[in-house]
Specification:
By secondary structure, the chain is mostly helical. The chain is 58% helix and 0% strand. The radius of gyration is 22 Å and the shape is globular. It starts with 7 loop residues before the first helix and ends in a 5-residue tail after the last helix.
């Protein structure tokens, strides 16, 4: 497991912890980190948060928790193959979506608009806030929460965007009031560079949702992979891939990527029909695609650097262009036929209205906050800090609890 490649600074925690009882099970620091994320309340809430389609809509479709478990499995296997610590990488994968609010990326967008005066909202920055502040586990002597008190190496692996909010907008990994803990966990790290464990987590996330979102949509009847045999039906899909993921790629490159995946024996030649055999064939396809993508990265790393363990900042992950395009093609297929559908856009509009109304209702009457957030609100020093607490509260809700809160606060008695 290459435990010896990680030094005392990698294992350091914000608040030093005494050794466990001698009769307690002996676990290494990174194993303990993993256990803390698994048992966190924020992890349990992922079971009722949207991945692409709301978890209440279908018994088969993935939610944020099942997605995170699948990302963790892919990340752990790839980490083991590359020689970085599987516990660190798996923990980062388990934690990577903790900061997502109700209704997935749609909820993230509306909360970002509403939180402009306190620094915006970003799911990855919210994940860091949960791990180091909001999740109840460990406190400093002065009474301030440090969240789960994870090790430096694990927190850094959870940091997908290791920089504050850019003035020009875009993804970021830390809010201004969480900057001190961010500087602690990034101490000694190259500016804006992800550790290799974070890069593995990020790739595992891309791989998982590229294949699993398509699988869910095929089972739901929203996508038929044989549609891609028709050049006319592919053209608008490639436009979606270009506008969402690879703006400078040409149709020929997308066609080549599709042909590469279609060359696999498990790629379907007929439509999904709902039988057990058809479902098994679809599962074999997703397994083959995951193996194809991860295998290409492992081969590229060995070719570039030789067979050696990759730890922290020893190297950057090598993802072949062909693999990047194939992943983008699958994501674009799901985006075009699921996320851009008229029905989906109508649902998203209602979700945005609901979250905006919740933020306004709680900001107007902060006594509605849950007790843990009420304490944060009482300690907040200005309007921006108070709004951040309201955003924290709403972001913590699941899809179902957000709807219940809306019914209770906005439409009581209806």
């Amino acid at each position: 497991m290459n435990e010896e490649l990680y030094g005392p600074r990698d294992r350091e925690r914000l608040v030093p912890e005494p050794p466990k009882r001698v009769d307690a099970p002996t676990r290494a620091p990174f194993e303990r980190d993993r256990a803390r994320v698994v048992h966190a309340a924020a992890s349990r809430r992922l079971a009722a948060k949207t991945q692409v389609v709301g978890p209440q809509s279908d018994d088969f479709v993935r939610n944020r928790l099942t997605h995170s478990l699948e990302v963790a499995q892919i990340a752990r296997d790839l980490a083991r193959a590359l020689g970085c610590h599987p516990d660190i990488t798996e923990t980062a994968a388990l934690a990577h979506d903790l900061g997502h609010p109700p209704f997935g990326h749609n909820g993230e967008d509306v909360l970002d608009e509403l939180a402009q005066s306190c620094g915006g909202f970003e799911g990855n920055a919210q994940t860091l806030r949960i791990l180091t502040r909001l999740e109840a586990k460990t406190f400093r002597p002065d009474g301030d929460s440090v969240g789960l008190n994870l090790t430096r190496a694990t927190l850094d692996a959870c940091t997908k965007y290791p920089w504050p909010r850019p003035a020009t907008g875009g993804k970021f990994g830390v809010y201004a009031d969480d900057q001190p803990v961010f500087e602690w966990l990034r101490d000694g790290a190259p500016a804006r560079r992800l550790c290799v464990e974070a890069q593995v987590m990020d790739l595992a996330d891309d791989v998982a949702y590229s294949v699993h979102d398509v699988e869910d949509a095929v089972v739901a009847g929203s996508i038929d992979l044989t549609w891609l045999d028709d050049a006319e039906r592919r053209r608008p899909v490639w436009e979606t891939v270009r506008s969402w993921y690879l703006p400078h790629a040409a149709d020929d490159e997308f066609d080549d990527a599709l042909r590469g995946m279609q060359a696999q024996e498990s790629w379907p030649s007929t439509s999904y029909d709902g039988t057990r055999r058809s479902l098994a064939a679809l599962k074999n396809l997703t397994s083959d695609l995951i193996g194809r993508f991860c295998g290409s990265v492992q081969t590229a790393m060995v070719t570039e650097f030789g067979a050696q363990p990759f730890v922290r900042f020893d190297a950057d992950l090598m993802v072949p262009r062909q693999t990047l395009v194939e992943i983008a093609v699958l994501k674009g297929v799901a985006a075009h036929w699921v996320m851009k559908s008229d029905q989906r856009r109508e649902i998203m509009g209602r979700q945005r209205e609901l979250l905006a109304a919740l933020v306004e209702a709680i900001a107007d009457r902060p006594e509605r906050l849950d007790r843990q957030f009420a304490g944060d609100y009482a300690r907040a020093g200005d309007d921006a800090a108070r709004l951040r607490v309201v955003i924290d509260q709403v972001a913590s809700l699941t899809d179902a609890s957000a709807m219940r809160w809306h019914e209770r606060l906005i439409n009581p008695g209806t």
